[in-house]
Amino acid sequence: MPELLRAELSKPSWKRELIAFGTNTDPYQWAEGRYRLMPPMLDALREMKTPASILTKSPLVLRDMDRIKALAEVTDVSVNFSVPTLEEKAWRATEPHTPHPRKRLEAVAKFNQAGIPSGVLVAPLMPGINDEPDQVQEIVDIAKESAATFVNGIALHLRPAVREVFMSWLSAARPDLVPRYEEIYAGGAYAEPKERARIGKLVRGARRGSRGRRTSHEGVAADRKRSKPRREPEPRQQSLF
After folding, report:
1. Which letter does DSSP use for residue 60 in this model?
2. 117 Cβ neighbours under 8 A, 6+ residues apart
3. What is the mean pLDDT of the chain?
4. 2-156+191-227 belongs to which CATH class?
5. Distance between CA atoms of 67 and 123, rounded to whole angstroms?
6. Model confidence pLDDT, tens digit, residues 206-238
7. Rounded distance between C-alpha atoms, residue 48 and residue 17, angstroms
8. How many CB atoms lie within 10 A of CB 64?
9. Which candidate among 4, 94, 176, 202 keeps its CA 20 to 30 Å from the CA of 226?
10. DSSP bridge pairs for 56
11. How many CA atoms lie within 13 A of 155 on its CB side?
């Protein structure tokens, strides 16, 4: 994989478009701890001055902090974290074998303290499972205290194959919710518009009601943002289960 990336970046036709890691699968899964595929890819990005964003569920990305800082010296880079819930039961049921979500929020703070923009995606939000206002509010509050550069939310996507796995799990774990999900996702992979609007309002409301106060490292992130040209918005997360 690193060799393929380097070959692509070396082509004369490469225009240094932003590369988004994690929009399809997490680049910092457990296997990364053994195979270490990301370090040489980050080195290649730095050499070719290619901007990048990383979306992950794992604080393992902190291992590569020095390489990411080196990349930030020549181009734009951000490291963002998916944090769907802080509630222990919901986390263990829906994200088994993933690092604790509080560790992810700690990593958000560490990256922002280091001057690397880091935000939070409250996703996937699953009706009846992790969408209580108080649950979302807690994530938003801690994200603000961690100087998160953004906090957005996305409703669960149920694409083919993923849909079958999720609905099988739901039937066993929460059979009471099956009719609701069949209705919400009757039109396909995306929740019905009414439900997506509700999810969006849920996170926006939590941002407005956040009790987090501006911290010293939040000030550093704000100063960094003011000192740089306006950046393009983060690429939209295409799928998260």
Report:
1. G
2. 77, 78, 79, 111, 149, 221, 224, 225
3. 89
4. alpha beta
5. 27
6. 999 876 544 434 444 444 444 444 443 443 443
7. 11
8. 21
9. 202
10. 81
11. 21
- Whether omega for the bond prior to residue 117 falls within 30 degrees of 0, making it cis, is no
User: If you write DSSP's letter for every residue of 29-46 in order, what string do you get?
Assistant: SHHHHHH--HHHHHHHHH
For residue 119, what pLDDT is reported?
98
- Domain extents for the chain? 2-156+191-227
Cβ–Cβ under 8 Å, residues 111 and 72? no
Say what the pLDDT of residue 24 is: 87
Structure-block tokens of residue 78: 């951000």
Determine the pLDDT at residue 212.
52
Q: Is 21 helix (H, G, I), strand (E, B) or coil?
A: strand
- Rounded CA separation 118/111 (Å): 6
Which residue carries 């082509």 as its tokens? 11
Rounded CA separation 77/71 (Å): 7
Listed as own residue / partner, the contacts of 196-200 with beta carbons closer than 8 Å and 24 or more positions apart are 196/155, 199/125, 199/131, 199/153, 199/154, 199/155, 200/153
Residues 193-203 have pLDDT tens digits of 999 999 999 99
Cβ atoms of 122 and 83 within 8 Å: the answer is yes
Tokens of 191: 């929740």
> How far is it, in rounded angstroms, from Cα 62 to Cα 110?
8
Q: How far apart are alpha carbons 91 and 31 in whole angstroms?
A: 21
